[in-house]
Write a structure and sequence with these properties.
With about 270 residues, the protein is α/β, with parallel strands linked by helices. Helices cover about 40% and strands about 10% of the residues. The model has no long low-confidence stretch (mean pLDDT about 95).
Length: about 270
């Protein structure tokens, strides 16, 4: 199954039992509306978010492309299989569609790649990738035996953080590595940015929708806004059908100029 372009994030889900019902309902609504990609991590709510996802997708496994991420301190051969088994149990599934190295730690990359390939061979993981890897990390990864198996790189990318367009985005495009844009609303504030308010007015959309739709206009980029509010979920799902015209795209380029030189990859 190929990774869908539009999905749902889950950071800060599973942290508070009183919000659990709404979080499960938000993810189910997103699936109903066709957002067939869910991104989670063992870190989110220390397993709580994976449990929320597990509840949301129960009986609906075939509708979702499931991405989860492991901690750097679980990236060794000795640790990774047990971490994956715990994630699978919380998610209530037999396989993760794409399993990501959340951010780079001290374990040698070759050790992590070997552990990931063993998980693929065991059928517990359909594909694997990385997160928060800049070009130098990707070059190092690609030079390792099996490293060219990397399927995705999940990075901070939104209108206010366009640094990856200079080098990382073309690097991934040239090698068929999917880019997953995290924090597409910059964790929320982009939904109130004056340039987006203006673009929204001319596009018949909300500012947040313009921010998400702008990312969907980038080839090879998947977008994973997090929303626990039903109205936000509906608005995000509708972005799949939102087309931004050339004058709007040009106005956004003026307000958020693309990079002209290397910017180190930012991360949240
Ligand atoms: P985000 O998606 O940029 O923003 C989430 C915030 O925006 C929430 O407060 C949400 O409110 C609000 N929102 C969502 N849709 C909206 C809409 N249509 N209109 C107005 N407001 C809206 O931030 P994020 O959660 O940091 O990033 C998304 C996902 O990326 C995460 O959940 C996580 O899965 C992933 N991520 C990965 C990394 C990494 O290191 N790999 C780092 C950060 C994030 P409500 O929740 O109230 O609806």
């Amino acid at each position: 199954m190929r990774m869908p372009r539009l999905g749902m994030g889950t950071w800060h889900m599973g942290e508070d039992a009183s919000r659990r019902r709404d979080e499960v309902a938000a993810l189910r609504l997103g699936l109903d509306l066709g957002m067939g990609l869910i991104d989670t991590a063992e870190m989110y709510g220390e397993g709580g978010a994976e449990e929320v996802v597990g509840e949301a997708i129960r009986g609906r496994r075939d509708e979702v492309f499931l991405v989860s991420k492991f901690y750097p301190h679980h990236a060794s051969r000795a640790q990774l299989h047990a971490a994956c088994d715990r994630s699978l149990a919380r998610l209530g599934v037999e396989r993760i569609d794409c399993y990501l190295y959340h951010w780079r730690g001290r374990v040698p990359l070759a050790d992590t790649v070997a552990a990931l390939e063993a998980l693929v061979a065991a059928g517990k993981v359909a594909s694997w990738g990385v997160s928060n890897f800049d070009v130098a990390d990707m070059d190092e990864l690609a030079a390792i035996r099996g490293g060219d198996g990397v399927a995705a790189n999940q990075v901070l990318y939104n209108l206010a953080r366009r640094g990856i367009e200079f080098d990382l985005l073309p690097w991934c495009a040239a090698r068929g590595v999917d880019v997953m844009a995290y924090s597409p609303l910059d964790e929320g504030p982009l939904a109130r940015h004056p340039a987006l308010v203006e673009a929204a007015r001319s596009s018949g959309a909300t500012p947040a929708q313009v921010a998400v739709a702008w990312l969907l206009h980038r080839p090879g980029v998947a977008v994973i806004p997090k929303a626990a509010t039903p109205g936000h979920v509906r608005a995000n799902a509708a972005c799949a059908a939102l087309s931004l015209d050339a004058p709007t795209l040009q106005a956004l380029d003026r307000a958020f100029p693309p990079p002209r030189s290397k910017r180190p990859l930012e991360m949240i």
